[in-house]
Amino acid sequence: LVMGTIPVPGSLVGLTGLCPLAGPSPTSSIHVYTQREVYGTVGSHVTLSCSFWSSEWISEDISITWHFQAEGSRDSISIFHYAKGQPYIDDVGSFKERMEWVGNPHRKDGSIVIHNLDYTDNGTFTCDVKNPP
């Protein structure tokens, strides 16, 4: 029996990240950075990195939301939300028991970990950061 981390053909999960820019005006913008593509082996875990830079101080009202759009789907669902200093993992969908918050908004980090990857995790993950006002 040989064990290792070499992926078996067909067992790779491809995750695509989007980095939308948000902000009310060009003078108070926020820039969000994610990895373009992340790959993981079925059954393993992967960190979806989300870092940001804001021209304003980090407000106590900062919010971070992760969305997922399955490969081949037009619809996206919210899978995670951070607001008022608390992480909230959405209690619907296949991610609810497999997600971990590892971010720290004061360090400009909104990253999450998805555990026990599955084929159905193929798709696009979007990190949305808002830093009011």
Task: Give a brief description.
0% of the residues lie in helices and 48% in strands. The chain is mainly β.
Secondary-structure topology with pairs:
Blueprint: E1 12-18, E2 22-25, E3 28-34, E4 37-41, E5 46-48, E6 50-54, E7 63-70, E8 77-83, E9 86-89, E10 99-101, E11 112-114, E12 123-130
Parallel strand pairs: 1-12
Antiparallel strand pairs: 1-4, 2-3, 3-6, 5-11, 7-8, 7-12, 8-9, 10-11
Main location: membrane
Keywords: Disulfide bond, Glycoprotein, Immunoglobulin domain, Membrane, Signal, Transmembrane, Transmembrane helix
Organism: Fregetta grallaria
Structural class: mainly beta
* Mean pLDDT reading: 83
| Beta-strand residue fraction | over 45%
Q: Which CATH class of the domain at 44-130 applies here?
A: Mainly Beta
Would you tell me which CATH topology of the domain at 44-130 applies?
A: Immunoglobulin-like
* Order of the strands making up the biggest sheet: 4-1-12-7-8-9
Shape: globular
Terminal Cα span = 57 Å
Keywords: Disulfide bond, Glycoprotein, Immunoglobulin domain, Membrane, Signal, Transmembrane, Transmembrane helix
Family: Belongs to the myelin P0 protein family.
Pfam families: V-set
InterPro entries: Ig-like_dom, Ig-like_dom_sf, Ig-like_fold, Ig_V-set, Myelin_P0-rel
Provide tags for this entry.
single chain, 133 residues, mainly beta, Immunoglobulin-like, three-stranded antiparallel sheet, 48% strand, disordered N terminus, signal
